[in-house]
Amino acid sequence: MPAYIVATVRITDxxxxxxxxxxxxxxxxxxxxxxxxxxAVTEVFEGAGVIGxxxxxxxxxxxxxxxxxxxxxxxxxxxxxxxxxxxxxxRLIDLPA
Length: 97
Hints:
Elements: E1 3-11, H1 14-24, H2 27-30, E2 34-40, E3 54-60, H3 63-71, H4 73-82, E4 86-94
């Protein structure tokens, strides 16, 4: 069954975050990932959301593929550039069979 990574991102250092972005460019696709949503929040209807916060939703063939992406050496190396450059919350949505 498909699994989804849902990330919310608040960038605090755009230059450093750009290094992270370059490091993960095309990497998700190598693990079967497909971007479903990429964009900034333009309006908050309920709760404590932040205008401008980025939301990324990626679909994977299954949860194992999503986990493989997040544990790959390339991803982990790119994350080093993200430290101190963004506040990120990453979630796995694993749909039941």
